[in-house]
Specification:
Low-confidence stretches: 1-40, 42-55
Distance between the termini: 72 Å
CATH class of the largest domain: Alpha Beta
Shape: globular
Number of helices: 17
CATH architecture of the largest domain: Alpha-Beta Barrel
Radius of gyration: 23 Å
Strand content: 15-25%
CATH topology of the largest domain: TIM Barrel
Oligomer: single chain
Largest sheet: 9 strands, mixed
């Protein structure tokens, strides 16, 4: 092959249509985006040709501003994406497209396409009680909420998960890591019904250290095994085993949960170093800071996801980096509960994967990753008095590719690159001076929100389009939630 000539790549679609698709060189393209056309409904195109499987035919998305989210933050201002069997087979500039095209061609009218957002930490099952307590630090807040959250039933949890998933998908989230106390498989089942990916599971507690609520170990293990059996055939559903925190679990329980996770080949998830009070409690009990304590017990490794990590010193950051553990950063929740601001730049400088999370509807009140991106940047800059702390590129990476890495899913999702699954978001962005790479990346972080999301695709299937969910009847689900919540409202002030 002559030097510099694009390598030919074929997929099932190219064979079927007698067309081969080639990889274009990845570079920053300066072509002006195409003029907008009339509104496009991807779900209409999908419904027109799908038999039993939803949205898994070959499709070319063209006339789009494509932000790939790869390591170079490559943009194609006049880009196109070829989706075959749920995966991206080609991403590049339209000028590099071959002459022949697949039968299904969708003109996006110059809209922006980006990777699906990844929420690395949430508690969907708590969503019914949003706004119950909006004041107090972490421990005060948790004590106030306990009478409402401890008696929650599995049905409360399940309907709360619907609220969280609907809001996340509407806001461009295609993958979420959910934490619960009971019902380890509920979030995954709801997310799969809507079409979203999930890493789901339950966080074990030691009854002596967290007396409110029923004991949940080994129940969490049993529920997870059952969920894996029931949903294991769906590649969108993955599971973990977790523990609530170093202060609510005995050392013996932490070790046992981690050993079971390793035995099953699952990630281990835990809240850690979320508040100064937690640091004081763990040091008084065990003579070590939270991360030091977890490392001493042998539960930190490349399959460990640590939520928060606000109060960590340089030595602890070194331990996180050396063991390969990842961090879920929750800037809005941490600010609301006066927990502090995580040393995101120090963690990332040591190579620690840092994803973004919303935490729950109780500690955040929203499941909006666009807000999390903006707040992550603003809080770092205000705290450090450094206007260069965290750039748009860095925080976009945290919300996509780095989040996928934190969840152990980086080979499949997190960026729009050939070979990865087609998890993407189409946004209706506009700028008076036109869409350039710099303006698009700026708008995605500082100006965009769920109101700009037009289409959400997971595994090549459109699950949300033009304000409508394609797999479920949103009105019927919300009516169900209202009827159920009517019985809870009398207990909520």
């Amino acid at each position: 092959m002559p030097p510099g000539r694009p390598r030919q790549r074929q997929c099932a679609a190219s064979v079927a249509h007698g067309v081969s698709y080639r990889d274009a060189g990845r570079h920053l393209v300066a072509h002006a985006p195409g003029r907008r056309t009339s509104k496009v409904s991807l779900s209409h195109h999908l419904r027109a040709a799908r038999p039993a499987t939803i949205g898994l035919m070959d499709m070319l998305l063209r006339n789009a501003f494509v932000y790939t989210g790869d390591v170079h933050h490559t943009c194609f201002p006049r880009g196109a994406l070829l989706v075959c069997d749920g995966r991206l087979r080609w991403v590049g500039d339209e000028s590099d497209l071959p002459e022949g095209l697949p039968a299904q061609v969708v003109d996006l009218g110059g809209r922006v396409v980006m990777p699906g957002l990844i929420n690395t930490h949430t508690h969907g099952g708590l969503s019914l009680h949003r706004g119950c307590c909006d004041c107090g630090n972490l421990f005060q807040w948790a004590q106030t909420l306990a009478p409402f959250t401890s008696p929650l039933t599995l049905e409360d949890n399940r309907l709360g998960c619907y609220l969280a998933v609907l809001e996340m998908v509407r806001g461009g989230v295609t993958t979420a890591c959910d934490c619960t106390r009971y019902g380890a498989g509920l979030f995954a089942a709801v997310a799969a019904e809507v079409g979203m990916r999930s890493l789901g599971g339950a966080l074990a507690n030691s009854p002596a250290l967290r007396p409110m609520g029923r004991p949940n170990w080994p129940l969490a293990l049993e529920e997870t095994l059952r969920a894996m059996s029931e949903l294991g055939g769906d590649s969108r559903c993955r599971f973990y085993l977790g523990a609530h925190s170093p202060y609510s679990c005995t050392p013996e329980l932490l070790v046992e949960v981690k050993q079971q996770a390793d035995r099953l080949g699952l990630p281990f998830v835990i809240h850690a170093a979320e508040s100064q009070e937690e640091v004081q409690i763990v040091r008084s009990r065990h003579g070590r800071r939270p991360i030091e304590h977890l490392h001493h017990l042998g539960v930190l490794d490349a399959r460990t996801l640590l939520a928060h990590c606000i109060w960590v010193d340089e030595d602890e950051i070194g331990l996180i980096a050396a063991t390969g553990a990842a961090v879920a950063h929750n800037p809005i929740s941490n600010a609301k509960l006066a927990s502090g601001i995580a040393p995101v730049q120090a963690l990332r400088a040591r190579g620690v994967p840092v994803g973004l999370g919303t935490d729950s509807m109780l500690s955040n009140n929203a499941q909006n990753l666009f807000q999390e991106m903006k707040f992550a940047v603003l809080l770092q800059r205000a705290h450090r008095l450094d206007g260069h702390a965290l750039s748009s590129r860095e925080v976009l990476s945290m919300a996509t590719r780095e989040g996928a890495r934190a969840l152990g899913w980086e080979s499949e999702i997190g960026s729009l690159e050939a070979g990865k699954e087609a998890d993407l978001v189409v946004l209706d962005l506009d700028h008076p001076l036109g869409l350039t790479p710099e303006r698009v990346l700026s708008d995605l972080v500082f100006a965009a929100g769920p109101e700009h999301v037009r289409t959400v695709m997971v595994r090549g299937e459109t699950i949300f389009d033009q304000g409508r969910f394609t797999r479920i009847d949103e009105r019927e689900v919300r009516d169900r939630i209202r009827r159920h919540a009517a019985g809870l409202s009398s207990h909520v002030t």
